[in-house]
């Protein structure tokens, strides 16, 4: 017993059960009193002990210093399989201790305990996919219900937010889409010309570039650009709102976060990506025209006429349909990863990276399926 100190502690064996230790607390247990730690009782706790309980009948004052000491004893007991009974503590300390012990240990996103082998990485990725599939399907269901509420006029979001998202994902994306589409059009024209000149059919460069850009490449390149530019931004925005507990505030107010935050983003991309796909095809055809006129001596009117002959309405329909699907995939992936984000800055970065990877994977799968389906339908 430390009688001269402001705090007092005594460890006794229970008279009823010798395997039970009773920690008697008295005096002023305040953080400024140089309180003992759980390590100071290791010698007494190392004996064959099955249970620890507290007696705070003589306790005069306490603050977080008492909680720190008791939580250390609880952690010690958990590690060694010793039951710790806190019913003898003040009621306020019991509640605070229960709250502290209820919070799980946080794990930083993207960090492992140590290096992993190839098989361990494959196994971890497989387990993450298996565990994430139900969450993805659940989120898809919530988005579907939100779209149905929109059709029935019951979805709650601000029209101004939708126009802001349209401006962000549409007009502001034109510069990067222009540059990439122009370069891709150049590449298609050069690759096609290299083979077509073997048979003297350079005029068909117009067919190759027009059909390729309008039907396939324009939508695919636009989708990949928007996935890296906008999908990551969606994940970072929603992830930051998760960190700041803004999404929790929506739930507290009874406002659907899917309607208010996710739905405008999905609508914006589904509207703008098809238009960007058309724009990408036009820029690619201009690049093909430039190569044909300056390098292969094809006339502007000849190139224009051959392009009109090659393009049909079904080519535009295929490109627009793919652009719409890609836009929905990108918005879905970005919003999904943002809503799944953890509560740390590192988790926000991980969500943005994961959104881009998920969007590109979904785009690739959708492109493959739609190409096969259109081929089988003769479109």
Helix/strand layout:
Blueprint: E1 7-13, E2 20-29, H1 42-45, E3 51-62, H2 64-80, E4 83-85, H3 91-102, H4 118-151, H5 159-169, H6 174-196, H7 205-243, H8 246-252, H9 257-295, H10 300-310, H11 313-339, H12 345-377
Parallel strand pairs: 2-3, 3-4
Antiparallel strand pairs: 1-2
Helix pairs in contact: 2-3, 4-9, 5-9, 6-7, 6-9, 7-9, 7-10, 7-11, 7-12, 9-11, 11-12
Describe this structure in words.
The termini are far apart. Strands 1-2-3-4 form a 4-stranded mixed beta sheet, covered by helices on one side. Strand 3, helix 2 and strand 4 form a beta-alpha-beta unit. Helix 7 (205-243) packs across helix 10. The protein is α/β, with parallel strands linked by helices. It is elongated. The chain folds into 2 domains: 7-102, STAS domain (Transcription Regulator spoIIAA, 2-Layer Sandwich), CATH 3.30.750; 152-377, no CATH class. The chain is built from 12 helices and 4 strands.
Keyword list:
single chain, 379 residues, alpha/beta, Transcription Regulator spoIIAA, 2 domains, 4-stranded mixed sheet, 4 strands, elongated
């Amino acid at each position: 017993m430390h009688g001269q100190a402001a705090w007092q502690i005594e460890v006794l064996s229970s008279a009823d059960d010798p395997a039970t230790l009773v920690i008697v607390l008295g005096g002023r247990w305040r953080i400024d009193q140089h309180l003992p730690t759980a390590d100071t009782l290791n010698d007494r706790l190392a004996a064959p002990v099955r249970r620890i309980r507290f007696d705070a009948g003589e306790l005069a004052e306490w603050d977080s210093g008492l909680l720190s000491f008791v939580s250390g004893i609880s952690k010690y007991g958990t590690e060694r399989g010793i039951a710790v009974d806190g019913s003898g503590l003040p009621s306020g300390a019991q509640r605070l201790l229960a709250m502290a012990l209820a919070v799980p240990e946080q794990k930083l996103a993207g960090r492992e305990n140590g290096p992993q082998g190839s098989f361990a990485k494959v196994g971890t990725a497989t387990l993450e996919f298996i565990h994430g599939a139900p969450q993805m399907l659940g989120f898809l269901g919530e988005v579907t219900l939100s779209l149905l509420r929109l059709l029935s006029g019951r979805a709650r979001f601000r029209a101004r937010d939708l126009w802001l998202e349209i401006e962000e994902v549409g007009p502001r994306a034109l510069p990067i889409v222009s540059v990439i589409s122009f370069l891709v059009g150049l590449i298609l024209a050069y690759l096609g010309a290299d083979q077509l000149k073997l048979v003297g059919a350079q005029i068909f460069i117009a067919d190759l570039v027009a059909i390729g850009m309008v039907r396939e490449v324009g939508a695919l390149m636009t989708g990949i650009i928007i996935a890296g530019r906008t999908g990551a931004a969606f994940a970072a925005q929603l992830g930051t709102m998760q960190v700041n507990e803004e999404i929790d505030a929506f739930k507290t107010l009874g406002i659907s976060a899917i309607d208010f935050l996710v739905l405008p983003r999905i609508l914006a991309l589904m509207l703008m990506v098809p238009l960007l796909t058309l724009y990408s095809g036009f820029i690619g055809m201009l690049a093909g025209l430039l190569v044909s006129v300056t390098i292969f001596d094809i006339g502007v009117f000849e190139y224009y006429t051959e392009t009109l002959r090659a393009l049909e309405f079904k080519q535009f329909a295929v490109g627009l349909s793919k652009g719409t699907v890609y836009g929905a995939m990108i918005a879905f992936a970005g919003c999904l990863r943002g809503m799944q984000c953890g509560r740390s800055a590192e988790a926000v970065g991980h969500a943005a990276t994961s959104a881009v990877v998920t969007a590109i994977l979904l785009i690739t799968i959708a492109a493959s399926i739609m190409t096969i389906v259109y081929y089988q339908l003769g479109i």
